[in-house]
Specification:
Elements lengths: L3 E10 L2 E11 L4 E5 L6 H9 L6 E6 L2 E2 L10 E4 L11 H11 L4 H15 L14 H14 L4 E5 L7 H18 L2 E5 L3 H7 L2 E6 L2 E6 L1 H6 L4 H8 L3
Parallel strand pairs: 3-8, 3-9, 6-7, 7-8
Antiparallel strand pairs: 1-2, 1-4, 4-5, 9-10
Helix pairs in contact: 2-3, 2-4, 3-4
The chain binds adenosine-5'-diphosphate and magnesium ion.
The site of magnesium ion (MG) has 2 residues, from helix 1.
GO biological process, one term: carbohydrate transport
EC number: 3.6.3.20
Protein name: sn-glycerol-3-phosphate import ATP-binding protein UgpC 2
Length: 238
């Protein structure tokens, strides 16, 4: 287990600066949620932490390791996206095992990790199916399972529920909470759903136009928003 420290993260695409010096500390085992309007840089920040984008400035430290210049596979991170990106030709079991197989883990170790993740997510009975035979919620579980199997130090979730219908979104919220209780993995979770943020977060970070507006517990932000923007963003339940 390890904490995550992002210091002064900057990212430009051409002349456009998307991240304008973002610093975030996520303590070991903490569930931190990033909220903010569309286009404010949430995905860019997560992709940078994962190593899918190269920062223009700043640093990323996981535990004691500076990972700023490491490739994604060496960062100890697993990321789940809004689109689940499962391999359609592979079974659920094979999808979940994929990362460990690439890392040349032993077969017994892979089987054990897949079984354990399937148990946690209640998808034991789906292991031999292909993604096309699954519902949206089941697919999302498999995508999360694929992340768990790799036993990362850090989970990154980028709007993992936004493709699901409202009922399922609420149910999956509890799944994430339960997952976190069981595994305690340090998590950075992006959403634009205020209720989701309020329910799941130990701490919420409000991002606006590439900068942090406020950081606090859900209660602090709700009761003492730093400005009108935060108040409006978190105060109006959908
Ligand atoms: P969010 O996830 O908060 O909606 P993003 O991080 O996806 O925001 O995008 C932030 C800004 O960066 C947007 O204006 C977007 O158009 C721009 N952007 C993101 N990725 C790229 C890219 N690869 N090339 C150019 N601009 C990008
Ligand atoms: Mg995004």
């Amino acid at each position: 287990m390890a904490g995550l420290s992002i210091q002064g993260a900057r990212k430009s695409f051409g002349a456009t600066e998307v991240l304008k010096g973002v610093s975030i500390d996520v303590a070991d085992g903490e569930f931190t949620v990033i909220v903010g309007p569309s286009g404010c840089g949430k995905s860019t920040l997560l992709r940078s932490v994962a190593g899918l984008e190269e920062l223009t400035g700043g640093s990323i430290v996981i535990g004691e390791r500076d990972v700023t210049s490491l490739p994604p596979s060496e960062r100890g991170i697993a990321m789940v996206f809004q689109s689940y990106a499962l391999y359609p030709h592979l079974t659920v079991r094979e999808n979940m095992a994929f990362g460990l197989k690439i890392a040349k883990a032993a077969k017994t170790e892979i089987d054990k990790a897949v079984r354990r993740a399937a148990e946690i997510l209640n998808i034991e009975t789906l292991l031999d199916r292909k993604p096309a035979a699954l519902s949206g919620g089941q697919r999302q579980r498999v995508a999360i399972g694929r992340a768990i199997v790799r036993q990362p130090q850090i989970f990154l979730f980028d709007e993992p529920l936004s493709n699901l219908d409202a009922d399922l979104r609420v149910r999956m919220r509890y799944e994430f909470a339960s997952l976190h209780r069981q595994l305690g993995t340090t998590t950075l979770y992006v959403t634009h759903d205020q209720v989701e943020a309020m329910t799941l977060a130990d701490r919420i970070i409000v991002l606006r136009d590439g900068r942090i507006e406020q950081v606090g517990t859900p209660r602090e932000l709700y009761e003492r928003p730093a400005n009108i923007f935060v108040a409006q963003f978190l105060g109006t339940p959908r």
